[in-house]
Write a structure and sequence with these properties.
Chain lengths: ~375, ~120
């Protein structure tokens, strides 16, 4: 091998040099920040990022009264998620922000006139966020939970009972644990070892955790697996909550399975879990995403000992990459003005026509599109 | 009367609905009423599901889980078999092949219980 200039001073590469360069190339691809995940997943609080999402609903075959309820990224945690407001354009007669009384979940309630033939609403939301990581070896003095929050985040919900098989399972998992961190970690490791992500589950799953445990079918998606974490933690006396949200950007750690694939994030809903530990406050966890890495991270169906899985598993007990927005932590939400029943969680836009509640997971009957982009300023 | 609780997201429920349809088509099945109860799904989703996989018996919608809770159902599918006096005689948690000989014999026993 030689350069184009020949002669006495030409730069030629000997076989030995070629081999040396080849070895250096091999080392270079192992550097973090490469395009595909090399097994380095380590979110840590750093620079704040600001995003804008646009959610557009178009309700066809209207007829009669049409209403919609659009979740807003209004979950406020000064250390890692700061909502910056929502605005909207619509041909509805009424559009106003409502809050659910129990959990403070915010959503835009939109109601159109009966004669509106093409109901449409477009909601633009902004927020800033940064990665989270809690060092579970150094206790601090976080804000303690008040009595209401303690009750709220240790109680059962419609689909998350804390007694019966949930309590029995939780007792088995945490038996012998020496402290709350140990309990929370054991439940996390149990989830990672015993559940699986089921590609056939529609949307993010339903989260009927007693049914999962009784049937022994521990497959599902985030709303199933992370709800199971919340239920098992609550049954062990640890305050815990599901945080419902949406992936808005690719993972900067190169994990294809843990980020949005494009600006269109219509189907990128993802819910996570938090557990409250004395000395540490709300601690982020995400066992469902560990199982997502196992199933989906290229080339797919990774063994649990794969470096990418090992790294994600280590990080996702105590850290979240914030390429994701948080809507709310609400369960069993009554939608004001709705004819249909309450919703188990509010992560997808909801709508009703004269025909009743629309299927938020069926793009043929209920059309909506969510896009996201990062703002530079 | 056979009361069957199901959801479209529940994998084993799908096979069992097929099995119940086969049961409903058997000779002598006219003595048996089958009622399926969908648990807390939006009507359009259930309708589309049944369009693709029709069944020969009525499907009721328990939109707010009130019936499901009242019947103590905690796993899907769950099925109850009631006698002619509408007293629950059998229940099954999980899926079952309703055309299996021992299952048919059990149904027959329920049918004869209430005639005594």
């Amino acid at each position: 091998m030689q350069t184009s200039r020949k002669g006495e001073n030409s730069m030629t590469m000997s076989r030995r040099e070629v081999l040396r360069t080849g070895a250096a190339l091999a080392a270079a691809t192992a550097l973090p920040g490469a395009a595909s995940a090399q097994g380095t997943f380590a979110p840590a609080p750093g620079a704040w990022r600001t995003f804008q999402t646009v959610t557009r609903l178009e309700i066809g075959k209207a007829g009669g009264q049409v209403q919609a309820w659009v979740p807003l990224p209004a979950f406020s945690e000064p250390d890692w998620f700061r909502p910056a407001g929502s605005s909207w354009t619509t041909n509805a007669k009424v559009a106003e922000i409502k809050r659910d009384a129990k959990y403070g979940a915010e959503f835009l309630h939109v109601a159109w006139s009966d004669d509106e033939k093409a109901p449409v609403v477009e909601v633009t939301s902004k927020f800033s966020t940064r990665d989270r990581a809690i060092d579970l070896t150094i206790p601090g003095s976080p804000i303690s939970l008040n009595a209401d929050d303690l009750k709220r985040y240790t109680s059962a919900t419609d689909l998350i009972p804390t007694d019966g098989i949930v309590k029995e399972t939780s007792d088995k998992i945490v038996g012998g644990a020496t402290n709350d961190v140990d309990k929370a970690r054991r439940i996390y490791e149990w989830l990672v070892e015993n559940t699986f992500r089921d590609a056939k589950t529609r949307g993010c799953g339903v989260g009927d955790i007693a049914s999962m445990l009784k049937s022994g079918n521990l497959g599902g998606k985030c709303a199933d697996l992370n709800a199971l974490y919340v239920g098992l933690a609550r049954a062990a006396g640890l305050p815990a909550r599901d945080v419902y949200g949406l992936r808005v950007a690719p993972s900067k750690f190169g994990y294809k399975s843990l980020g949005a694939g494009s600006e269109v994030v219509t189907k990128a809903q993802h819910c996570r879990a938090e557990v409250y530990l004395s000395g540490f406050g709300w601690v982020p966890v995400d066992p469902a995403d560990v199982r997502k890495v196992v199933l989906e991270e290229p080339p797919g169906n990774l063994p649990i000992a794969d470096a990418k899985v090992v790294d994600a598993r280590k990080a996702l007990f105590g850290a979240w990459e914030m390429n994701w927005l948080a809507y709310n932590v609400a369960h069993d939400i009554v939608l004001p003005g709705a004819k249909g029943p309450k919703v188990e969680f509010l992560m997808y836009p909801q709508a009703e026509t004269a025909a009743g509640r629309l299927d938020c997971l069926d793009p043929d009957t209920f059309t909506y599109k969510i896009t996201s982009k990062e703002l530079t300023s | 009367v056979l009361v069957h609780f199901f959801a479209t997201w529940c994998e084993p429920c799908r096979e069992e609905l097929t099995s119940l349809s086969r049961l409903a088509e058997r000779p002598g099945a006219e003595r048996l009423s089958i009622l399926a109860v969908n648990v807390a799904e939006v009507p359009t989703r259930v309708r589309r599901f049944l369009d693709a996989a029709p069944v020969s018996f009525p499907v009721l919608l328990d939109a707010d889980r009130a019936v499901t809770k009242a019947w103590g159902v905690s796993i899907l599918p769950t099925t109850f078999v009631l006698d002619r006096a509408l007293v629950a005689r059998l229940f099954v948690e999980g899926d079952v092949d309703w055309t299996r000989a021992d299952v048919l014999a059990a149904l027959e026993r329920v049918s004869s219980t209430n005639s005594q």
